Every structure is written in structure tokens, then in C-alpha cells.
Model the fold of this input.
Amino acid sequence: MSKVETHVAPVSRLYGFLAMFLLCSVALVARAVNLQIVDTDFLQDQGEARYLREVVVPTRRGNILDRNGEPLAVSTPVDSVWVNPKMLLQSPEDIAPLAQVLGVDADEIERRLTQRSAREFVWLRRRLHPDVAAQVKSLKLHGVFLQKEYRRFYPAGEVTSHVIGFTNIDDVGQEGLELAYNAWLQGKPGLKRIIRDRLGRTVENVEMVREAEPGHDLSLTIDRRLQYLAYRELKRTVLKHGARSGSVVLLDVKTGEVLAMVNQPSYNPNHASMDSEGLRNRAITDVFEPGSVMKPFVVASALETGRWTPTTPIDSSPGYINVSGHTIKDTHNYGPIDVTRLITKSSNVAATKIALDLEPEHMWDTYDRFGFGDVTGTGFPGESAGVLRNYRRWRRVEQATLSYGYGISVTALQLAEAFAALADEGRLRRPSLIMGATNPPASILDPEIARQVAAMLETVTGPEGTGKNARVANYRVSGKTGTSRKASASGYASRYIASFAGFAPSSDPRVVGIVIINDPSGGQYYGGVVAGPLFSQVMTGAMRLLNIPPDNFEGMVAQSTEPDLGGGD
Amino acid sequence: MNARLIILLITLTAVVGSTLGVVYARHESRRAAVQLGLLEDQRDEIIAEWSRLQLEQAWLADAGNIESKARDQLGMELPEKSLILVVEKP
Done:
């Protein structure tokens, strides 16, 4: 019984299902006809109105900070306006108010849009002022859109422009550290797939194709306060002496960190117009013949031989010496002096006599160890290595001139690196501009010799030295003046480079300062007179700002008896 | 037969249930997306405000600004040597 039933039931059910499927098909066909023919206009509109689009999610470029976290370059979002020409050209009467708000010619906009009418995306103006952006928004024009972009601001402007550099309109680094660390700062823009309606509004976020990665911040070793101080004083000095250009570099002796690096002429990176003269970071890219500031290194080389000591006598009379037919002169006849006095008085004749006593290879080796002729390794774009010719090609007169800084080219940063090694008992550190860089010191000179040379350098700011103008109140200062004639096509011209290189406090050197003033035209050109005072002003500020205890204080000194120093005198 | 009916009913309920679930999830995801968008806008606004404040602070804390204010408005100057007292650590 049940067997018959189960046999019959499937047949009738089969027909039942067949009929149902048929009905479904008819219904589908009917709906298809309805969609394709009757409702086609409505659906066409809907289809065009909704797009599945991939849009770029803009990301922020990392900030650049100074050693204390003060911002030196900051990106902040601003609006850029773009249009869809197809849409805007449908209602050309909208162009006039838009042009008025943007402050541009309406015909010009229309011409541009007509030329690009086949496209869907045309920038109209980028990086608007927030007020202008708000006005554009309030116009609510068909086919006009605002896109968020980042604009970079440099709060310290021309004071830090050479070190930091700048970016172009697409936020790509063009100069300086913005260029060198572009990949680190830039970040990766994200990508998301969205559905947009006819008005460009986002209807639905479909998916995040790629998460936006914001750029990393970059901390520099620059101290903004010192940078500002150095810049202000350099600018004043360059103006006062009518100099063509100038540089100041401050280096932390114990770490090799660059505390300040400024140049003149400079430029303001917040504005577009810049002339190429001001763009270079001269302290790193430009080389010059250093002149007498090289003498400490030839003396160091001499002391290394053991044949010379700080008190070895040298006869510098009659104030000139002939080497292979060339005459090397001093400004005065210093008569019989010793090695220390060579540095105090900056005698070319005595330096020459020392140099000619040295093996060329040894002298070259000393200069080489101090980093001359080598890039300092900061990774700064356009860094120059300077020129130190191989000793095998030295002629006798060349060896002589090398002792007082001619026939060799250096950058201001190289000088700073070398003087820091003298200041820190012969430990050479590669200078760095980025915080957290590891600078293992390399021992390049016997500590005792470094101390002896440093002691000689202190006599330069002493009563008989050439660098009295470089003194800093309450601190002992060591340093060396330099005045070099500039080489030109027709031999050495009567144009000069005035320089001062030194460090303070002498009892425990903390900061090295290099001052280079190129081509002073105000009548004075001696390093001690032109560069010395600038060194003194900048160092005074550096000692105060870095809280370095004075080592030459003649006023009131009191012993602190209580741990709490508050409450006045 | 009874058992089949029960299975049918369960399946039917499950289908209706999951349909509603899909509708709800879709709605929820849209709501969440809108919420996300709003929060992202808010975040961007806050970051923008932060960078503006940083710039403003950098300008206000500018050494030149402070120095000119201290000298001109407050009449401050560096103390003379005779007025400086150095206190040494015991």
C-alpha cells in the first residue's frame, strides 16, 4: 500500500514543480522586458550615478623637529579645488562666481576646461587659503570639488632652510634633509574603494584596499635657539662687512652632533621664489682654502714625530723664507719663537720650517686622519669631500703651503669635525644631523699631543694672540684665526676669506664653533677682526643656552650649602 | 512525514532568519562606515588643529620674538658681571 503511494506521488509532484518553474521563468522574462524597455531611462540614470571608484587616501608627511622637539617643518591639511570639466561646462554661468572667489580670470578657466573637456579631473588651484576654500564650498557648484592635501610650513623660515631644504607641490623632498630622508618622511598614501553618487558624495565604503601609512617624524640634532642665534649674528656680520657669503657651524664636542648650521645668503622656504645663490648649504657643499686655521694640524703632526715639543725654538726672522723660488711671508717679523708662539702669532714662516722637516707621507697621514679630503658621512645631498692631494704628488713648496692652509680645500663642517677631535683629546667623531645616530669615536691622535695643541690654541685668545676678539666672558676659549686669500684665474686675488675655528670652555671643551666669512669688502678682512667677534657672540649664547658652567669666573663665587637654591640671594 | 515537516520548518526559519541577519548586518555595516567616516573626519580635524597649534606655538616661542619682547616691553637685559653670583656644588 505504502509502496504504491510513494511510486505515484513523484509524478504528480514533478508536474507541479514543472509548472512552478515555468511560472518563475515567465515572471523573470516579464521583469526583464519591463527593465529593458519600460524603465530603461530611470535605470540608465541610476547606473551612471553610481560609480565604484578607487580613491587615494592622502597621508601626512612626517614633521621635522629640533633636538628639543620644537617643530621645524610641519605639514597641515589644506584644500585644493578640482573640477570635472564635463559637469561644470554644462552650466557655464557657474564659472564666473568660482573665478571671482579664486581671484582668477573666468575666461582663462573656461579655456582651460574646454581644452580638457574630455577629462574628468582637472586641478583648478592647489593649496587654498582656508577662507577661500570655505567660500568655494559655500558656492555648492555642480562639478567642483575640494580635495584635502597637505601643505608644508617651515616656522623657522630662512634660519633653518639650508639644513632642512624644502618639498615640491607634490610633497616630494627637493633639497636638504627633506630630500635625503624623503622616503622616511613621506609615508604611503592609502587606497580605498568606494561607491560615489552623482554629486560625488561617498555612498558606501566598499573596502580599504591599502591602509594609509603616515610618514615618520625626523628629529634633528639642531638646537633651534642656537640656530636662530647663529643665523642672526652671521647675518649681521655679513651685512656689516659687506661679505659675499658666510657660514657658521656649531658642533657638540662629546657627541659630534651638529647643534647649529647656518649660511648666508639664505632663502625662505615658505615662499616659492628662490634664487639659486641662496639655495646651497655652503657649510657642507662649498670648499675653500682654509688658511691659518690649518696650523694646529701641522703642529700636531710635528709633535707626533717626537722631534718637536711645544717649546722647541724656531727662528722666524727675517719674516720671510724662500722655498723653491717662492717667498713665504709673515705679516711681521716675529724673530726667534717657539712652537706655541707659532700658533699664538700665526707665523707662516715657522709653520713652513716645521712642514719642511716632516715626512710628506706622515704629514699627509695626519691631515687624512683628521678627515680632510673625505666626506664626513652625514648623507647630506651634495656634500663635498674637499681636496687633499696625495703626498706622492706634493712638490716641496706645496708641502710648505699646506702647513698654513693653502693647496688644500675643506668644508666648514670638516673643519668643525677636525677641531672637535683636537678638543676631545684626539677622538674623532663623524658629525651627525639626525638624533640617535651612533657615532663611535675613533682615536686618531695621542691624547697628550691633543692636549698640548689645545693648550697652544688657548694662547690665541690670550693677551698676545690674534684672536682676542673671540673671547667669551667668564669662559676660557681656545681657537685659531684664519685669513686666506682667494684663488682666482690670475693667481691669488686681493679678496679674502676670514675665519675663526675654536672651542669652549677650554678646561672641558663642549662646543666647537667654526665661522667662515667669504669676501668681506668693508676694508677689514682679518679672521680675528671679522670672524672673531661673531664667534664670541655665538659662543656666549651657546654657553648660556646649554647651561655650561663657567671655567674662568672672576666675580663672586659661593659654595652652595643648601640643596634648595630657590628664594633669591 | 512529520520529521520532514519539522526539517522544512527549521530550514525555512533558518533561511528567513539569516536573511534578516544579512539585512541587519548590511545596515549595521553602513552605519558603522558612516560612523567611521565621521570619526576619521574628526581625527583629521584634530590633527590639523594640532599642526596649526604647533605652528602657532613655534611662532610665539620664536627666540627673536621673545627677545624683543623681553628687551623692549619688559626692559630686561643681561646682568652685568658684578651682579652674577656663581654657586658651586659642595
Observations:
- Strands of chain B lie at 85-88.
